[in-house]
Amino acid sequence: MRPRSSKTTAKTCGLSTPETVDAAIGGGASHIGFVFFPRSPRNLSFDQAAGLAVRVPSHVKRVGVFVDPDDALIEQAIGAARLDAVQLHKTAPDRIAHLRSAFHTEIWAAIAVKTRADLDAAHHYAGVAERILYDAKTPEGALPGGMGVRFDWTLLDGFRHPLPWALSGGLHTDNVGEAIRRTGASLVDASSGLETEPGVKSVDKITSFLQAVAAS
Ligand SMILES: O=C(O)c1ccccc1NCC(=O)[C@H](O)[C@H](O)COP(=O)(O)O
């Protein structure tokens, strides 16, 4: 059991319809994730992202999710989806430093975790990112996120976090309370646990997940 200084907030990731965006906002999500990665079943076109982004009030932050993106993708996505932050998977610290100075945007660095040694990568992002997202390492060749894979939360015990952080990987309504109590996470993130099939989010699952976070 880990102490928390304030209520935990939630990012619902990979939303692609007005109904699910509205459910996330209505349920109290602090962040909404839009995926820009063509291999993902949650990938959005710039037009789709723009249409969803206008529904999001300013107190809810729009996070763009990318896998080692080029500058043009980031620039177009920030413009279309009016992103408040970008979440970068498989992106080296020097590349992140470049993107941060080029686009002056908040950066989240995703760290793929399976072992305690994997956590050490977080230290390389101090000074170049605003937040670390600890996500589960997925199988070789699979998408680097959105796979419903969980990592051993006890790996975080005693780890000295170099930056504010969020917990991700395999979270859903039935385990998020335990995850928060166990890790002390102040921000949690979920995607496939809120779906009926890959890429298809459920309003009911989003609502119950956010209720479980609020009750934790
Ligand atoms: O969600 C995707 O399709 C995705 C694709 C490529 C890179 C990252 C991706 N998602 C990142 C997220 O923030 C997910 O919410 C995170 O990986 C947790 O997913 P899940 O285990 O399914 O809850």
From TrEMBL:
It catalyses: N-(5-phospho-beta-D-ribosyl)anthranilate = 1-(2-carboxyphenylamino)-1-deoxy-D-ribulose 5-phosphate. Keywords: Amino-acid biosynthesis, Aromatic amino acid biosynthesis, Isomerase, Tryptophan biosynthesis. CDD domains: PRAI (cd00405). The keyword Amino-acid biosynthesis applies. Pathway: Amino-acid biosynthesis; L-tryptophan biosynthesis; L-tryptophan from chorismate: step 3/5. Residues 10-212 form the N-(5'phosphoribosyl) anthranilate isomerase (PRAI) domain. Its EC number is 5.3.1.24. One of its GO terms (biological process) is L-tryptophan biosynthetic process. One of its GO terms (molecular function) is phosphoribosylanthranilate isomerase activity. Signal peptide: none annotated. It is an enzyme of class 5 (isomerase). Belongs to the TrpF family. PANTHER family: N-(5'-PHOSPHORIBOSYL)ANTHRANILATE ISOMERASE. NCBIfam families: PRK01222.1-1. This is N-(5'-phosphoribosyl)anthranilate isomerase. It comes from Sphingomonas jeddahensis.
